[in-house]
Design goal:
homotetramer, about 375 residues, Rossmann fold, 2 domains, nine-stranded mixed β-sheet
């Protein structure tokens, strides 16, 4: 059996949806144990949450700094191997930086942080600490996303001409933050979210998914960002034209990216279409077990998770036979599983790294800059 | 029974796909008889086509000019009431102008013509002749498109914030014009098609559908037009950001328009989504009998053609009970049927007019101008 | 151009849904002209309907007998070639028999008649007259149904093990006949419908579709017929187990047939699945342009009408390119078109004949007998 | 936090697909710890599997009898609370009986056992021990299945007239057992599976799902069971007509049940449709997050998991927001979660009990009897 890692968590206390998702995903394959936490920004609330989740008192910390010190003081076999950071965005940089440079493995929620400057800091911290730093771009964990990546890489749709990536949500179509709803509150607050609203919260997933599947990088961006809901301080609707480049592209590829949180009735409707010179691919997060492959002149092909014909990487990411659907938790767990393999030094597929996170933050920044610009195209190239 | 109209046709001879569609659509309800034609630009070919279709010799003309003169010379009860013009785009302006100003009703395929100047000429010709001039934006003929229009107009989705309109095709993903395929040949030739490739051929449908359903007009456009296939002289892929205005809008609405003919595996995949402050609508041409209505907080609703709950305009456009699917021909026929009603002076719903056509041509021009511009936004307002 | 046939009609006057469908379908390809009729069982109503439809007075008959005599008295080039019979079922036998034995071509709605005895009479009449006798099993006219037949015949799914055919409707879930609704009224009246309710009205389509696609014939039937709506005199729900035989079968094939008119929310949901030793097929009438082909171990394949890869017979049945959906009218028209070709003596695909109709009537009878029997299996073999 | 239960497992060692599913599902919510096992029928293999899964040596038993004795010998706070039994069917009765009567909580895979006699024994054992005995009819764990149950119970579709339940698989369409494939091997062996093949393995799920959602019980059954694959000793295709009764029924309800493992291309396609006097419901396991509710005269309604409008029981069964799909594991985990709540004596929804299991075994027996009978109907009533 693989070595069971010890995991601590920062953020994710009572009422925080994403903390429970991380805990379930991380433990799905019994690859880690959740043993320490500083689960809220308020020490009392943090400890109350930890008690409810069964943490030992001595490892149920009031603040992340106490946790960092407390765990460092423990003998190596006892202290946490990895910290999972699931706070709102604004705290990512400081917390992740501290743990990473102290030599802990880090798993951090996306977007990585608020600015490219913070991102550079985190890349430095990871280098200093020398450990794994994974970012939970969880949609890349779906088996059929991996199958799509495999098919692009192996040339099954020829060279890539165009990408349409859409992320439709409707939950912020009204002034939900005004009701005190916690998720809406911090996501619409620039001081905690960063400069991007919808483009940061879900556009970052769209950007990563595109890059993950096609290997293409944004060259330039033309963005129209809007705040539809009166009083909202960040965009809740983002529509982008893109130019993309990379080895798989047929010249400079074209892109359309839509990320919106005011499209009523859409729940979490992430979709990626990739059009090549010889075929096209179509995947939707809400029906994640299938991938449509359209060909020039032949019938559509519908590939399904769990079948013998999928690639090894998709097989690795699968726990159940075909027809026994897998979904969000399993995809999320796959990011953890790949990162855990790297932490253990055992073979496994790749996982989104701190640099992937930095690219995402850079993309958000360039999109926000484009939205403020009268020029059609804003440079979006990332220099490592 | 309604008076049966006598129809002539220009273009639409052997090998022309769209001519047969017009003849079938026009006659579907037995509302007209096809009695005269100048069916090709070559007199011999024109007459051969007419013979095959059973035209009388004396009304099987070699050229449209002969037809115009020949029909004018006939007594009123015998001559054609209406001419249907289904040539490639470049011939529309001259032919339609001549018939319209001569006092014939005209039905003309879209796009109306190649330039706004030509369009202005046609508006003038229609005014001089004083008869009906319809443009076959056939997708507006679908019952559930009319239902969508009704729902927007009656406020069922609140005020409109955003529109996503997509028209995906893949048939021009390779150099089909190089093989001599007739449909591809003229559509990729600027002298016959006008300045727009995909944006003209199918983008014009997307523009009209949006306007038809929402009543919103483009205010500004930001376009990225591409010719992917080597050697092609017109765009085969168009991706646009839009700003739209009109009474139904919540301020200035946002739009995304995609029209592409290189997206392999997509056949004729026209889709319109309209997002309002209280709900959203979703319609797809390839499954035209249903309309999805999504609401804030409630289950999705799937409305279907033929049910008692649809609006009168959708009922008017329906010939079969629910579950007995109607499709392309019937929608096309509805444009003819509404125009025929106007020709007879009997009550009927509206139909796309010469001015709708002019707006479409203007939109294509502004889009092509935007594509050549470095500015993000190009003015797209239409002045009648 | 093909010779335009002259068509008369019996039944199908005002308020009769199916008469208009037949007229539109028959004329869709301009292959016939509707010139005579006896459109109702009441002479006054018949003539009023004919006037509304533009029939000449002298050929707008009060009764079918007058029409038979009147047309026989006309010179050959003027009299009708074909009569279309669209009355309620109980009148089929007498009318069709008279016209067929008098040497007219006949197109008759399904089910052919009420009893196998009547059916034998019609077979005799057709033989005496020696002309075409087609039965409008219209669902066999869909291109992708023909593609399915082709794939079974050419062994693409191996030998057939099992068929599931379903015909779900909900419009008779309440006592609609009690409201005077005309369609419901005669369909629930044994004296006009025959012994079968749902099994006759729509089960007969299911039976024919199965036979058409697979070539298999029922060997034995086990039926559970129910009248759910209080006071209803015929079944409104039919559930059957079947054993089937034929050259394509893998031994004796199994079948499940469901035909119901009380399944609320289903409109006209006819679906056929055929399972073979090497693959399976799946087709639905409400999305008729696609056919799913599932294979052992490979991705699903979705075939679509209008593509180069479909069989010749499917191509023959297609008028529009892929993605421009065709539907109910076109399928219906294909039955007429094939029958018209036979009437003209020109080549064309086959069409459902009087014997197909007789087999359908026999199947209804055996199903009703099974429903009354305590034995599991009732013999359903048809002896020509 | 809820008390963490200690779980042992019998069966589910290396290569056993379902053992891993049970372990993941049981631990998904951190509600239990897997601490003991007798994971194979061969002691060596059992211990090797346990080592791989990280069991302590002293609780890594060679046989289930050793485990029963070993655990009984431990102090109460240390010994297992619950045993999960995931062996092939033939071992269920003896193992579950022993643990249940010894006062352990039991979770047993379905079908409960091979004969009604064995089932009676297990009911007795459960009564003697007085503890929880749950059967993993896992499909009842889906939130939208619970929503469907709620809607039937609250009369939203009126009284139930008809049920169509289908379970389509294709993986046994060829002689897989002949290749030594372990899952196929025991499932096609009467000595290990019991008298039912497809009807036992998956038909039992269909039977339970129907009963769970509607509350209706089978009154009589008419079955056609077939073994299509040459040499196979159990049915691989089951087609049934049913009569059902219960408080929700409109008189005696009709049913159609299809369970097949030779329908190529279908993976795990379980579908339930319930037709009432005022509406109908439609749910599919492969798209489990949605439930279609069709109404008389209104648009279809598509309900989705995670929305505020679903019933409390569906909310209880949900871990993620709408649009973040949940699937097989979560549904499976819900059965464990409900059973765990009962074990702890805390409030929770119901779970499938040993009596539900007994009813399932009885249903399989009556179906097999019907298949051998010439009478149409075989009594299927269960007497507790």
């Amino acid at each position: 059996m693989d070595r069971v890692l010890k995991m601590g968590m920062v953020g994710g206390g009572k009422g925080a949806f994403i903390g429970a998702v991380h805990r379930t995903a991380a433990c799905l394959d019994h690859g880690c144990r959740f043993v320490a936490g500083a689960l809220s920004s308020t020490p009392d609330k943090a400890r109350a949450s930890g008690r409810e989740l069964g943490l030992e008192d001595r490892r149920n910390y009031g603040t992340w700094r106490e946790m960092l010190e407390g765990e460092r003081a423990l003998p190596e076999g006892e202290r946490i191997d990895v910290v999972s950071i699931v706070t709102p965005n604004h705290a990512h940089a400081e917390v992740a930086g501290a743990f990473a440079s102290a030599g802990f493995h880090v798993v951090c929620d996306k977007p990585l942080c608020r600015t490219t400057e913070e991102a550079r800091g985190l890349i430095g911290a990871q280098r200093r600490g020398g450990k794994v730093f994974a970012v939970t771009y969880n949609y890349s964990g779906y088996p059929m996303v991996r199958q799509a990546r495999h098919m692009v890489a192996s040339g099954e749709i020829g060279r890539v001409r165009k990408v349409i990536v859409e992320y439709h949500q409707g939950w912020l179509a009204s002034n939900l933050e005004g009701t005190g709803q916690k998720q809406a509150d911090w996501r619409t607050d620039p001081s905690r979210s960063g400069a991007g609203g919808a483009i940061g919260d879900i556009g970052s997933h769209a950007e990563h998914l595109t890059r993950y599947v096609t290997g293409l990088e944004p060259v330039s961006v033309c963005a129209d960002l809007t705040s539809f809901v009166p009083g909202r301080r960040l965009d809740d609707d983002a529509n982008l034209l893109l130019r993309l480049a990379g080895p798989a592209a047929d010249g400079e590829a074209r892109g359309v990216l839509v990320a919106s949180q005011i499209e009523i009735g859409h729940e979490n409707d992430l979709r990626l279409r990739v059009f090549g010179t010889e075929g096209s691919l179509d995947w939707r997060q809400e029906e994640p077990n299938e991938l449509w492959h359209r060909t020039m002149g032949g019938p559509d092909r519908v590939l399904r998770r769990g079948n013998a014909y999928v690639c090894d990487d998709a097989k690795w990411a699968t726990r159940l036979p075909a027809g026994h659907p897998e979904a969000f938790f399993e995809a999320f767990a796959n990011v953890y599983r790949a990162a855990f393999a790297a932490m253990r030094g055992t073979p496994g597929p790749d996982y989104p790294t701190v640099e992937d996170g930095a690219r995402g933050v850079h993309f958000i920044e360039r999109t926000v800059a484009s939205a403020a610009s009268d020029a059609k195209w804003t440079d979006a190239r990332y220099t490592p």
